[in-house]
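Data deposition worksheet. Section B asks for the primary sequence of the deposited chain exactly as it was used as input, without tags or linkers unless they were present during the calculation. Section C holds the resulting structure in token form. Section D is free text for depositor observations; keep each observation to a single sentence. Incomplete worksheets are returned to the depositor.
Section A, Depositor: J.P.
Section B:
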Amino acid sequence: MSESNSSSLNSLTLLSPAKLNLFLHIVGRRADGYHLLQSVFQLIDWCDTIHLKCIAEKEIRRINPLPGVKPEEDLVVRAAKLLQEAYQVNTGVEIDLQKEIPMGAGLGGGSSDAATTLIGLNALWNLQLDQKSLYEIGLKLGADVPFFIFGKNAFVEGIGEKLQEISLESRQFLVLFPNQGIATQRIFLDPELTRDHAQITMEGYLPSPWSTLSNDCQAGAMRICPEVKQALDWISQAVPGSEPRMSGSGSSVFAVLNPKTDLAKLENLLQTLPGGWKGRVVQGLNKNPAYNLISPD
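Section C:
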């Protein structure tokens, strides 16, 4: 399949992109325990692939399920069932998910897959739902799901559901996953996590130098998972002066690449990563590849 999405009368194949948190500030906490944040979410071309095929039976059939993930915990299955039940769809779907985005990496892969499933089934089942309708279902699956339905880079607030489109320059990033997932809940229960970062505005963010921003979860993640610091150090040595940081609640780390970066040399260095680590040079995207399948509102 090419990088563009392809469809036929009863099937659809979609790319499901990861995202980076270019910064992550925790600015408060709600009474229900959810943390209030500010961030910029950047789509990247590290993608899973989802193939959806309509079936006559009113059944959500998962092909090649993920090892260790129970069907009731599988986000693409949950997304399909929620949509089917909410709109009383009488046909079913066969879902084949080819994972490339590491699980537990802080790159939003599971949320992206859920959003892509909702977008794809909205088209396949001819429901003609707008973004707002899909947001409502997506938010039941996770705070990041509405962002991937939104489908554009965003300045993010609230618990992740308040989105403003933001125009970002085209950039490449080096992303490393040190083969250790971190449970988001563990990060946010860290007693040393600061929850009172001064708020900024989107207008204030755009001209801000990289060094004035941070990831408030990073210090705690390094205590919980030493591999996070090892990955940050690896990037600092491979790309001097790049000021790497962690994405989301970890454990992936990344750095913005200078246009003058020797990519061939960097690709060679990536071949020397410790066993099990994954690293890629990725391109920032302006839109989710599935964006055109949904009407804004």
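Section D:
DSSP finds nine helices and eleven strands in the chain.
The mean pLDDT is 93.
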